[in-house]
Design goal:
single chain, 147 residues, mainly alpha, 8 helices
């Protein structure tokens, strides 16, 4: 990744994560060989456990395009991408004068859009629990069918 303009604006967490990956943060398990400072490794570890690890440039661009109809400021869109709110309460904290600028239905539509487009970050424990639940349901269905 090459920085074209260092003063172009704020970055999404995904862009920072992508930059750190390109510098070798994710490929050096010993954290000695890569040209990444210890503080950058801490940032990398944090971002790896956030929603940014599941985002792509295409997903972010699609979200930005869809957000045009909500008339949000660039900083608000950036904060939504970085924090990925999943409820109206969280959206109220990000959007300035949300109760004045948006109707209740519009806020819920925005939350739906966020949940549909931006991927969530699931911990490996949550994913394992969901997989176990699905396997149990499938086993129960198979038992019912054979009975």
């Amino acid at each position: 990744m090459k920085i074209l303009d260092s003063k172009a604006g704020a970055l999404t967490n995904f862009e920072v994560l992508d930059l750190l990956r390109s510098r070798g943060a994710g490929t050096d398990p010993t954290r000695v060989i890569a040209s990444v400072s210890p503080s950058e490794f801490k940032v990398f570890d944090y971002l790896e456990n956030s929603a940014a690890c599941n985002q792509t440039r295409e997903i972010i661009q699609k979200f930005v395009d869809v957000c045009k109809k909500f008339d949000l400021a660039k900083a608000e869109i950036l904060n939504i991408i970085n924090t990925r709110p999943s409820s109206a309460v969280e959206v109220y904290q990000i959007i300035e004068d949300c109760d004045i600028r948006m109707e209740e239905d519009t806020i819920h539509e925005l939350v739906e859009t966020i949940n549909q487009i931006l991927p969530s970050r699931q911990s490996t424990e949550e994913t394992a629990e969901e997989n176990n639940e699905i396997e149990e349901e499938t086993a129960e269905e198979n038992n019912e069918m054979t009975s």
